[in-house]
Amino acid sequence: MAIAINLRSDHASSGEIERLWDQVAVFEDSPSMRELGYRPHVTFAIYDAPEVDVETAWRVMRAAVQGDAALRIAFNRVRWFSHPHCVLWAEPEMNPTLSRWHASISAAIDPMLCRPHYRPSAWVPHCTLGTRISDDRRQDAMAFARAFVGRFHVVFDVIDCVVFPPVQIVAEQRLPKP
């Protein structure tokens, strides 16, 4: 079982990300983000149990955001990770609060217990758009990402802790309005 701590959007503005999910789904063998059954989100850390338990992860996430409000995050690029599989994602504009929260989490729980892509030296803030890009559609997906023109904002208004697979929310807290 894996444990993830996230910043999630239950706000109406998340429709911008969901529209991109649907556009990216044409490059997938099946629509990965819709099938996930989970809202648009930014993941700060993923841990494998029993090295880190839900209670610890949730306590650290709540402490990281203490006194902060929901975040309005701007996106203007679609990018991709290409190893081992092609994954498309929306890139948030530089946001010092996201970085501060991630640093707080990494300071509270040994980063070596975190999956490698979420450690301080490797973490790339992102909102995933599609995880199952077909190999035969990889070039089309990358062309879509390069051609993306647009700027939109999404309000991320909930922190949560989930276990997976499948994704199950085990703790959540709505953030105050900014």
Strand order within the widest beta sheet? 2-1-7-8
Counted up, domains total: 1
CATH class: Alpha Beta
Number of helices: 5
Please give the number of β-strands: 8
Radius of gyration: 16 Å
- Overall CATH architecture: Alpha-Beta Complex
Topology-level CATH name: Cyclic Phosphodiesterase, Chain: A
- List unreliable stretches of 5+ residues: none
- Biggest sheet overview: 4 strands, antiparallel
What overall geometry do the principal axes of the alpha carbons give? globular
What proportion of the residues is helical, as a percent range? Answer: 25-40%
Structural class: alpha+beta
CATH homology group: Cyclic phosphodiesterase
What is the mean predicted local confidence, pLDDT? Answer: 97
Order of helices and strands: EHHEHEEHEHEEE
Residue share in β-strands:
25-35%
Distance between the termini: 34 Å
InterPro entries: Cyclic_Pdiesterase
Organism: Bradyrhizobium oligotrophicum S58
Protein name: Calmodulin-binding protein
Secondary structure blueprint with pairings:
Blueprint: E1 2-8, H1 15-24, H2 32-36, E2 41-48, H3 54-65, E3 71-81, E4 87-92, H4 96-108, E5 127-130, H5 138-147, E6 152-156, E7 158-164, E8 168-174
Antiparallel strand pairs: 1-2, 1-7, 3-4, 3-6, 4-5, 7-8
Helix pairs in contact: 3-4
Pfam families: 2_5_RNA_ligase2
Protein name: Calmodulin-binding protein
Organism: Bradyrhizobium oligotrophicum S58
